[in-house]
Amino acid sequence: MSLLRFLKLDPSNQSASSPETETVRKITEALDRLEPERARYIAAFAYLLGRIARADLRISPEETRAIEGIVVETGGVPEEQAIIIVQIAKTQNILFGSTENYLVSREFNEMATHEQKLALIDCMFAVAAADESISTVEDNEVSQVADELRIEHKDFIAIRSTYRIYLAVLKN
Fold first, then answer.
1. In the chain, fewer beta carbons within 10 Å around the N or the C end?
2. Considering only CA atoms, which of 54, 27, 61, 55 is closest in space to residue 41?
3. Which of 111, 107, 98 is nearest to 38 (CA)?
4. pTM for this structure?
């Protein structure tokens, strides 16, 4: 890291008024081979998947593997890079989740198309279902993100219904 960049004097740095959060910036640095906008998208996407996995205050190994697979598939990054991205996203969720969650959702909302937002909601349910059960807390967190992304309730329910066999509230 150059001294200019460390002091935030590097002219290639974004302006201080950028809406990019520190969390997304850290994950983006792991994606330096991609174009900046694509890297920001993958960073926010991975963070939000980690948010769902952490909703019940525990990220299972199955949820971690699911997120890694989704990041490889959706982001088109190599598995080694996806592992780093997911680890950073998980750590950021643990350390700063309560303050970063809405900021990252807002940023993702601004950069994603409607179809990408729906795909994210679907992936969130897939992550929550990775351990064969979607807890009420995870379900509520996905609903919260859908609201933050301004997803219509009917669209949320349509996606959620494809995962109904995993909903803990409907089991037993």
1. C
2. 27
3. 111
4. 0.79
